[in-house]
Amino acid sequence: MNSTKHFLRDTWRLAKPYWFSEDRWRGRGLLFVIVSMSLGLVYINVLLNKWNNAFYDTLQNRDWPGFVHQLGVFCILAFVYIAVAVYQLYLQQMLQIRWRRWLTERYLERWLGGRAYYMLQMHGGETDNPDQRIADDIDGFVSQTLSLTLGFLESAVTLVSFVGILWGLSGAISFSLAGVGVTVPGYMVWIALVYAAVGSWLTMRVGRPLIGLNFAQQRYEADFRFSLVRFRENVEGVALYGGEKDEAKIFGSRFAHVVDNWWAIMKRRKRLAWLTNGYAQVAIIFPILAAAPRYFSGAMQLGGLMQTASAFGQVQGALSWFVDAYTELASWRATVERLTGFTRDIEAAHRVRAGEGPARGENGDNALRVENLSLDLPDGAPLLRGVNLDLRPGERLLVSGPSGAGKSTLFRAIAGLWPYGGGSILLPSGGRTLFLPQKPYLPVGDLRTVLGYPAPPGGFSDDELRAALADCGLARLADRLDDASYWAQRLSPGEQQRLAFARMLLQKPDWLFMDESTSALDEAGEAELYALLRERLPDTAVISVGHRSSLMPFHERRITVAEYAPAR
Q: How far, in Å, are 72, 82, 93, 264 from residue 86 at the CA level?
């Protein structure tokens, strides 16, 4: 019971924001119409139930005019039912895509905002494959929430509508128990209740493991897909290493998890299918058997028997909603748990950025100041202590030191990506800032978009783009601005770093931070680009992270991170 309450509370937390959002009136309006149509379908079922009595009586009485009339009534009811059902489905899908769009936009905003995606990558937490959470789990949550909620509502209204009908039709049954006469009024209602209760209890017992199995299946599928995507992004490295066999083993291992878990789901679903299909088949004949004594005693005609069987089916079906929906309920619960874990991790990532790490602010005198900066590793181990920097416009600073000493971590701290440590970082209040990582990010798209990133399309003219490419040694690409490709695979690491320099020439930053941004180039190419930087952007302040001594001539100042390493 506590687990169910916790699950329903989590579900409401996920669902509530949309119904109180800026789109709430359209969403509520659609929901009202859909619910009204559901109630209309129940009402038509009530009319069809009454029609059963009249129709089968005409058969028993061989009443041809009455038979033809009842066929006409059925055609009208069937047409109205089909029309309402079609438009109910259409409007439900409309509400589903509106809700999914709103929820996806909010999750993307929270995931990307405050660089929570970066913190999730560092911390991990409950979230594996956040792309699947946003692409698949949100879709599953919305569709399953709507279908299950509306299905439950329709079943509840059906139960209320037909239980009175069944009570009146079934009459009372009398029997002797231990010599005592017993009369049970509305006995068919009690039989339907017991039948559904037994079926629901057995279904829960058999199907409960499906919740955990569905949760695991979604994770294994996402892990397998991620390994394939990662392979596609690193095909050259795998080919050069000749690592196809190792990759095949990784794929095979991850897919084996998919298959093994699927077999477990299959076995559990097979047991559940035995139960639910047997339950459904017995339900076809069971009401007729239960009502047969009254029919053969002459208490009801054939029409009454068929109406009673129909009403029993409606009541039993409504009471058996849990049995019929259990597989979807298990999948829904797994989806809610995954989205809830994702939400908790995003909120934790925002709290980390808001409450930890070096203090950040703006410096009014147009200078970069780092004061008494301390940086730690995620496990709390000290990395750097007492870093103090003061950089003015146009100055060039080289940060050097051995690998693993903390150069890139200092770079991340200045960029606002490192939440572990203390001290303060005051960024210049004016001017444009640009950070160039060692491995540039190249989005998928045409070269014009890739080169101008993150500026919006059209931010630079074609002449400017071609000139920047030519200046950085990529003149061969100047006529390919409209070519769309996966440029991260088409260009070598050195060419990617040259392209990043071309971006820098286009954006003309006042403050430039480079983390080994020329490491894939030879010293001659590196010197060429740094000379170009000095020539084109003489007033730009530069902090370069690197370990090559050849960088020193292009910087007036130098620090080594070893100076700030704490005593071990």
A: 21, 6, 11, 36
